[in-house]
Amino acid sequence: MGFQKLNDRFILEQSDNIVDLIECYDLGNCPVYVYDIDGLDQRISEFKNVVPPNTEIHYALKANCNKHVLQSIKSQGVGLDVVSGGELKQGLEAGFKASDIVFSGVGKTVNEIELAINEGVKQINVESVQELERICFLSRKLNKPINVAFRMNPDVDAKTHPYITTGFRENKFGMDFLEISNLVEILKNNKNVHLSGLTMHIGSQLRDIKPLEDATKRLLSLWDELISQGHKLETLDLGGGLGIDYKDSTESDLANIQLYGEMLKSLLKDFNGRIILEPGRILVARFGALITKIQYIKENRFKNFAIVDTGMHHLMRPCLYQAYHRIIPLKFDSSHASDEKLYDIVGPICESSDVLGKDRLMGHLRQDDYLAVCDVGAYGHVMANNYNTHGLPIELAYSKGQLLK
Ligand SMILES: Cc1ncc(COP(=O)(O)O)c(C=O)c1O
Predict the structure, then answer these.
(1) Residue numbers of the domain that contains 398
(2) I need a labelling partner for 94 at 20 to 30 A (CA). Which of 185, 226, 240, 333 fits?
(3) pLDDT per residue over 247-256, tens digit each?
């Protein structure tokens, strides 16, 4: 599934060599994000197959909002999780029904909340007392009902990079369990606003299931408490967060997905509400590659640099989170295999943090060679910017060897 190294070629399953595809479509002007939609389709099925039957999947659109990606998500009956008015509009324009969209995010503005209420989203995941008061005020003003779920902060260490930890007590996300009576009190005088459930999201790129399990237990105990007080809750939203091993290939994901599914099935076997999951990375990360062309090979006494036509402006993850991405030459020249050297793969940006890969052992690289930066389907193009006034990379999506229009 997905991108593979086959003999001397880096290929997309069911398609030709990517270089041939790029050249054949006269898109030699890299950089380009390439998406494997068949791989994504298969991944969505794999994920659906392991989660409990009473689960609704809401893909976290922030991970990748390419129109073909969204089409694939929609065609499999998966809903959306969005975090801004812009993302909400994007989801609606892609054909998702508002009732299949969960609206998360820590800083929703008046305009964004009005949009969500007017469109009738499935639920707004509330992040603070003041946000709940704002929602109550706006639903009264618009005279329209709205469902809310309280995003709680379970105070667990997600054991991931500190910039993507969101369920620890010092993070800005979610609410302290001690706030619950206050929140419930506010709803008593606001009949338009219906408490439909509880939600959490403890972080991203989680490789260890245990923090997710601990946090789910905490949320479940609060759920039971509210039910015993007579609240009619419907949805338990456990967020996203499942990670991948960026140093390994696609096959290594399945074991983790399986473990996650088993954990959920075991913890929630007696749960009779609806479970919501908001996966992003685990669905899309593997099915994107960033294809770049080497502009210069620059060597000094200490280092060999391959200077490419993409960098931190097009893929922020390495400079933002010290993230690792496999980097593979698109054409493998076996005659150069013995000529391996350590290269730093760097971009054109005027920052020394503009490094896509450090000390990578590779066969002899040459000017105009293509490289594939792997596993960039999540938090890749969505974070791209045009710093130094470079253009954005184009995006191409393939299915069954065909370029999708
Ligand atoms: C509220 C919420 N849900 C879901 C996600 C998706 O996370 P991931 O891509 O790690 O699955 C995020 C991302 O940070 C998020 O903030």
Answers:
(1) 3-35+286-403
(2) 240
(3) 988 888 999 9
